[in-house]
Amino acid sequence: MSVKERVEELVLPILNDLGYELVEVTYQKQHDAMHLTIYIDTDKPGGVSLDDTELVANAIDKPLDDLDPTGGEAFVLNVSSPGLDRPLKTERDYLKKVGTEIEVALYAPIAGAKKHVGKLISYENGVISLETKDGELKIETKCIAVAKPYITF
User: Fold this and answer.
1) pLDDT of 4-40, one tens digit each?
2) Is 51 helix (H, G, I), strand (E, B) or coil?
3) Does a structural domain hold residue 57?
């Protein structure tokens, strides 16, 4: 099992008990150190707060030490929210964004373009419905290279 897989297996039940969703675990070199980053999400209004990340970090710190997923190699532990522009990857991600504007980049053109922006109308059985300025598009998620919230400032 990889470091990432061992950590996911360890923290998933802890996060579930605390009421958080595990979005992703990454283990990679940044600057001159290895960083183990746990991305969490919540359905609470306002999303993940600094207090949430601190609570989770404290809850997983001792179990991580006991597990020693890196075999004694030092690492920096980070707990973070996934961010506003995090790509949509799972069914849950898409369902949470129904009714909002998203940007979709495709592997191959659909309706004459590889990029579409519109309101996510629905997600069902691996197919999204996107209301664009040119009308409604149905796109299979397997055709999507990247889908993410469309953010304007």
Assistant:
1) 999 999 999 999 999 999 999 999 999 989 999 999 9
2) helix
3) yes
